[in-house]
Design a protein that fits this description.
With 82 residues, the chain is mainly α. The protein has a domain at 3-59. 67% of the residues lie in helices and 0% in strands.
């Protein structure tokens, strides 16, 4: 891995673990005037925040819960004329 990207990853992880109120100052200190690194870390932080809990619950868990719920419901009787 390129040293610059390794630095970006280290800073991203450090800032992400910091308290919200401390992040801006930590980012400023860690980037030490390197605008490219700062922009990349800010971009990663934005994407991380926007992702939210996107992958926290696997899709198969949701569908299996729905399937179990549907199995527990009585089926509708066929309508007349069907």
């Amino acid at each position: 891995m390129d040293e610059r990207w390794a630095k970006i990853e280290r800073i991203f992880n450090r800032v992400l673990e910091a308290e919200e109120s401390r992040r801006s100052a930590l980012l400023e200190e860690s980037c030490a005037g390197d605008e490219f690194v700062r922009r990349e870390v800010e971009s990663l932080l934005t994407h991380h925040k926007n992702a939210g809990d996107f992958i926290e619950t696997p899709a198969f868990e949701d569908t299996s819960a729905q399937a179990a719920e549907n199995r527990c419901r009585p089926s509708k009787p066929p309508s007349k004329g069907s």
